[in-house]
UniProtKB/TrEMBL annotation, chain A:
Superkingdom in the source lineage: Bacteria
Keyword Hydrolase: no
UniProt source species: Methylotuvimicrobium alcaliphilum (strain DSM 19304 / NCIMB 14124 / VKM B-2133 / 20Z)
Molecular-function annotations in GO: isoquinoline 1-oxidoreductase activity
NCBIfam families for this protein: TAT_signal_seq (TIGR01409)
SUPFAM superfamilies (UniProt xref): Molybdenum cofactor-binding domain (SSF56003)
Domain Aldehyde oxidase/xanthine dehydrogenase a/b hammerhead stretches: 209-287
Record's protein name: Oxidoreductase, molybdenum cofactor binding subunit
The keyword Signal is assigned to this record: yes
Alphabetized UniProt keyword annotations: Oxidoreductase, Signal
From TrEMBL, chain B:
Protein name as it appears in the record: Oxidoreductase, 2Fe-2S subunit
Limits of the 2Fe-2S ferredoxin-type domain: 1-76
PROSITE patterns named among the record's database cross-references: 2FE2S_FER_1, 2FE2S_FER_2
PANTHER family: BLR6218 PROTEIN, OXIDOREDUCTASE WITH IRON-SULFUR SUBUNIT
SUPFAM superfamilies noted in UniProt: 2Fe-2S ferredoxin-like, CO dehydrogenase ISP C-domain like
Entry EC number(s): 1.3.99.16
Record organism: Methylotuvimicrobium alcaliphilum (strain DSM 19304 / NCIMB 14124 / VKM B-2133 / 20Z)
InterPro entries the UniProt entry points to: 2Fe-2S-bd, 2Fe-2S-bd_dom_sf, 2Fe-2S_ferredoxin-like_sf, 2Fe-2S_ferredoxin-type, 2Fe2S_fd_BS, Beta-grasp_dom_sf, Diverse_Oxidoreductases
Keywords: 2Fe-2S, Iron, Iron-sulfur, Metal-binding, Oxidoreductase
GO terms assigned for molecular function: 2 iron, 2 sulfur cluster binding; isoquinoline 1-oxidoreductase activity; metal ion binding
């Protein structure tokens, strides 16, 4: 299965990144289905595991760590089959290149879409199992016994009869010379020591001591710093600037243009920033200086009355609505949102004649390499990508704008490493935003209050169509703007959904945590609540009755309702403050999540008291991380629902920092209870599915409390 | 050149007086555990101790820190080992992305010095640092554990 040439290439890359010592054993394995590719000489070879003479297992993680736990869950899957303890592992970030494109039939690699664990689970198990088989074979060969007489304990191969032992570290150089076996059997699930267990995070110590290195912390000899100012109007460009005004300021090295702005480079970041503030610069605002989010919203609302591209059609919704005893209609909208990673955008690059090194917090090392190769004109194998820890990603770091800036500047000053750091203001005003979206929902009921039909029109522009049009099967149907609205499990006999594409250019849009689900779950689950109210039914009971054919959804809903001890009516606490519960149920990224939110309103102030969350992600590979990610997703969604909104006037973003783009504070944090349902269904994602249900759960509780139906966000615009 | 005392060690730093202390600590002294988050003193990622007082170093001019003792996350542990808060942070697996956590720990250390046994309500209102990953509940738990550990040790 292996090919030597590819293995040696793999080994070189491995050693380069792992800084492993001599005698390191590098495992390269071909994945099933790749043999043909190998024969063509474009081998897709994975190289995940290296073992040095001390038995330290260096694990090349193809997925980046941005908080979601990949530096724990992914190596644990491999270590389960290798029979290694977590303490034996050194987790490093794999370089760019085809060897690590293990997603979607070995065609790509990125970290996002809640894909890491579910897309690599079997690959990682096979990688570990294959390495273990080779270590056993090496030991058996040394002892001249059949491999079947040998077994392992963590880090050690043992010959059962004689009790002879050799460590993985001793065996690694011998194992590296063996052919790579095919179809090594995997462990029985019942014997798992690590998979399915709440394994502690591998990164928790360095993150508590300050040693964890983020992109913004990168050190390099002769490092220079760049502060950047980008065109405040999207699509604008630099018209003129007067570099002579700042070149004599302390520490200033150069003033250079970047694709949509200008940069000052200095020996210290503060000096670069200060000089940039004093640099006279004029921008050509281009054609978009009249764009406003308010007028775009009007455009979206008007589009809801047009007919669009049909994206769902079951039965005859028009007929059912015209014959219905009762119909309801509601229009919802959701604002642009920024990602606001705690670590602002930054990137460091060093370009020489034949090499380019990029230190980039990123969600796809191949994307970094591609951008660097395009800018420098170097070949991909001359690009070295270092991916440190990410101070948050949430979809922002798929976009390579900040990387392109660093490489552009480094190319202009060859031989000098340059670190670009955005201020929070640049970060807020030059994000790639969750797109503003509007939707109209209609439903019809029979005389008994049974739902007959649901009709959905969504208007907006999705990030996939803008950024990755090649992913769309039909260029007119971009799911990333309406996903989570149509195609729901509720048994409603007639369903129709349409999409009206309304471009939001020039505003940069991107993937925000849970993508289209974040706004469409709010629309859909709020409307299901409106339907329950119209039918005079309890919101949990109403949903249950529509899920009789969907036992998995029903169980998740029932679990959350049970955890919360669901209360249909509002109540007053001992201080006379009114409380109520709201519920929402949503599937995204292969996982089903139900949340019940208890909300109190006291003299107009909202308090989210507690959230009960049930999740069915098939099987929890690390239940502790699943729980944390549910909490994290809830906070991210709640923060947005509560107070986050990006608006644009005169083509530019109004907000600039946390004072006018407030994110959830500690004193606003609700208690959270999470229960995991291991249904045995295929693995689902966990990084995002916690986000979509929280906004509708909270808003549905607010309706019960105040009678006011929230049909747009954030809540901070409302008075209760 | 200006001398600063950071974590009990002298640093000779070449910086203008108006430079925020944050950048002097990070870029010149090379102690990158203290993070840049917002630059306006809101998020708390840059939290340090100045003569034992909690300050947001992005708002503190370098010139105002002369002759004062600075403690950063790198100086929180002692020769005996990690600070009880750092140990609690590890035990409770608090960190997700981890970027805000040095600032959170510095803020918690100041809180416990002032109030060795805070209630959850006090922790919720006194800890004002932002965490975008939403680790707040783990932070509250870790502060309580560290308070208990410190109580047992003293």
């Amino acid at each position: 299965m292996s090919t030597l040439s590819n293995l040696s290439m793999t080994r070189r890359q491995f050693l380069g990144t792992a800084a492993a010592g001599a005698g390191v054993f590098v495992l390269g394995i071909s994945l099933p289905g790749c043999a043909k590719v190998d024969e063509q000489g474009e081998g897709v070879i994975n190289a995940f595991i290296g073992i040095d003479e001390n038995g330290v297992v260096t694990f090349q993680n193809p997925f980046i760590e941005m908080g979601q736990g990949t530096y724990t869950s992914i190596p644990a899957i491999m270590a389960e089959e290798l029979d290694a303890d977590m303490a034996m592992l050194k987790v490093v970030q794999a370089p760019h290149g085809p060897e690590y494109r293990i997603m979607f039939n070995n065609t790509t690699r990125f970290t996002g879409g809640s894909f890491s664990v579910r897309s690599s689970y079997m690959t990682m198990r096979k990688a570990g199992a294959t390495a273990r088989a080779m270590l056993i074979e090496a030991a058996a060969g040394t002892w001249r016994v059949p491999p079947g007489e040998c077994t392992t304990e963590p880090g050690v191969v043992i010959h059962r009869e004689s009790g002879k032992k050799m460590t993985y570290g001793e065996l690694a150089p011998l194992a590296a010379k063996l052919d790579i076996p095919a179809d090594v059997p995997l462990k029985d699930d019942a014997s798992f020591r690590l998979i399915g267990k709440p394994i502690k995070r591998t990164d928790n110590r360095v993150k508590a001591t300050g040693e964890a290195e983020f992109g913004i912390d990168i050190k390099a000899d002769g490092l220079l710093y760049a502060a950047v100012k980008q065109s405040p109007v999207f699509g604008g460009s630099v018209q003129s600037y007067d570099q002579d005004a700042v070149l004599k300021m302390p520490g200033v090295v150069a003033v250079e243009e970047i694709p949509n702005g200008v940069a000052v480079i200095a020996d210290q970041y503060w000096r670069a920033k200060k000089a940039l503030e004093q640099l006279p610069v004029t921008f050509d605002e281009g054609d978009n200086a009249d764009f406003s989010s308010k007028s775009y919203l009007e455009k979206l609302k008007a589009a809801l009355n047009e007919s669009g591209v049909r994206v769902e059609n079951v039965g005859d919704a028009d007929k059912a609505l015209s014959e219905a005893a009762k119909t309801i209609e509601a229009v919802y909208h959701a604002p642009f949102l920024a990602h606001q990673t705690m670590e602002p955008m930054n990137c460091t690059a060093l370009v020489t004649k034949d090499h380019c090194k990029v230190w980039a917090p990123n969600q796809g090392a191949d994307f970094v390499a591609k951008v660097a190769a395009e800018i420098t004109g170097l070949k991909l194998d001359a690009i070295e990508v270092i991916t440190p820890f990410l101070g948050g990603g949430f979809g922002r770091r798929f976009i390579m704008d900040y990387t392109a800036q660093a490489v552009t500047l480094a190319k202009k000053l060859p031989g000098k490493p340059i670190k670009v750091i955005w201020t929070r203001e640049e970060d807020t005003q030059h994000d790639h935003y969750r797109p503003m979206t509007a939707a109209k929902y209609r439903a019809g009921f029979d005389a008994q209050g049974n739902p007959l039909a649901i009709q959905i029109t969504t208007a907006g522009e999705g990030p996939s169509g803008r950024l990755n049009p090649e992913f769309l099967k039909d260029p007119t149907i971009d799911e990333s703007i309406f996903e989570g609205g149509p195609h729901q499990p509720y048994a409603i006999p007639n369903k129709r959904a349409e999409l009206v594409n309304v471009t939001v250019k020039p505003v940069p849009i991107g993937y925000w945590r849970s993508v289209g689900n974040s706004q469409n779950a709010f629309f859909k689950e709020s409307f299901i609540d409106e339907m329950a109210h119209a039918a005079g039914a309890d919101p949990v009971e109403f949903r249950r009755n529509l899920l009789t054919e969907q036992p998995r959804f029903k169980k998740v809903l029932d679990t959350a309702a049970g955890m919360a001890n669901w209360k249909s009516e509002a109540w007053k606490d001992e201080n006379g403050i009114k409380h109520a519960m709201g519920v929402a149920l949503h599937e995204s990224f292969g996982s089903i999540v139900a949340q019940v939110a208890e909300v109190a309103v006291d003299d107009g102030d909202i308090r989210v008291v507690r959230v009960w969350c049930a999740v069915d992600c098939g099987f929890a590979v690390n239940p502790a991380i699943v729980k944390m990610q549910m909490e994290s997703g809830i906070v991210y969604g709640l923060s947005a629902a509560w107070s986050e909104e990006i608006t644009l006037e005169k083509g530019r973003v109004t907000q600039s920092n946390f004072h006018d783009y407030p994110i959830l504070r500690p004193d606003q944090m609700p208690a959270v209870d999470v229960e995991i349902i291991n249904s045995g269904e295929p693995l689902g994602g966990i990084g995002e599915p916690g986000t979509p249900p929280i906004a509708p759960a909270v808003c549905n509780a607010l309706f019960k409390l105040t009678g006011q139906r929230v049909r747009s966000l954030p809540l901070s615009k409302y008075t209760f | 050149m200006t001398t600063l005392m950071i974590n009990g060690k002298q640093y000779e730093l070449d910086a203008e007086d108006d430079m925020p202390l944050l950048w002097a600590i990070r870029d010149i002294a090379g102690l990158t555990g203290t993070k840049f988050g917002c630059g306006i003193g809101m998020c708390g990622a840059c939290s340090i101790h100045l003569d034992g007082e909690l300050v947001r170093s992005c708002m503190m001019p370098f010139g105002a820190a002369k002759d004062k003792a600075i403690t950063t996350i790198e100086g929180l542990a002692s020769e005996e080992g990690l600070h009880p808060l750092q140990q609690a942070w590890i035990d409770k697996d608090v960190s997700q992305c981890g970027y805000c956590q040095p600032g959170q720990i510095m803020a918690a250390a100041a809180l416990l010095r002032e109030n060795p046994n805070p209630s959850e309500d006090e922790i919720r209102t006194k800890m004002t640092n932002y965490c975008r990953c939403g680790t707040y509940l783990q932070i509250f738990e870790a502060v309580k554990q560290a308070a208990q550990l410190q109580g047992e040790q003293s």
